[in-house]
# Entry
Amino acid sequence: MIDATGSGASITRALPSFRFDPPHEVEIEEGPRESVEHVATLLCGSKDEAIESTFVRIAIACLDTTASNLTDTELEVRIDEFAWVFGALRRPARLSVEGLWGQLAIVLWSTNVRLALASWQSNADAIEALDDGKARLHVKVSGPKRREHGVRLEDLTEAPGGRTLLASLVLDEAQGGETVADLHEAILAQVEQDLDARRRLERLVTLGLGEAWRDAAERRFSLRDARRRLRFFDSRDVPGVSWPVPLGVRDVRFVVDLRDTDPLPLAAARTLGAFFRGVLPRLSDRPGPRASPRGLTRPQARGRIR
# Structure
């Protein structure tokens, strides 16, 4: 139930995945005490525990359930956002599980998690990068024993006055590794009090995974090994196709093999500006042979959904 003023018009929404009832008076019993509150109700349409858990997490992030006395207009806007994000569980994935895992790992390792989340650009074409308009960090993931990545020609371009780097991860599936959900919750633990960051994280993860969310729950990769193998490359050093491309050619995509390309040391990458200092790992975070993932805790959900 969500506190609301009951002002303005609102409509009931009955969908297979959830039901929303506009603000109405509800009698609430808490032990011997009874009260009447003006609330809206949002009910999950599934009995699947995994879906129910996701439902609650997205609702808390999208609806700001710590707020009280929302106007109906404010509530409608938030319900629209919730419906769009929660509905993504039935839509095709925008990213592979490995791709989203890698993106989350970069955010988790970043010096400034809030900056990394705020700069995470994503769209229906699955173009993934941390981008502040000039500086750009593309996250690329490959399987074990190779460092080959699919790129677009645009991935290697630089904005005027900016720089572009590639973060290259090599992932191994590992029985004792971390899932997308583990990384997701570790990031949530670091932005728990920042509603905007939490809302953005839920949108990016849910829209990225889409209907592949069940597959993501079963796949584990070693965060420690991924951090040990993480390399950064200056786009100027990455082999590629040269501009200009022939007239009539667009959306140029190719695979780059970086095994023979010299990486850019982390210390050097961090000198390229405040943006990179914020979204890249700290120098002190270099993992040793027994290093363990930081921040992998399970935060308790907070909010007023009852």
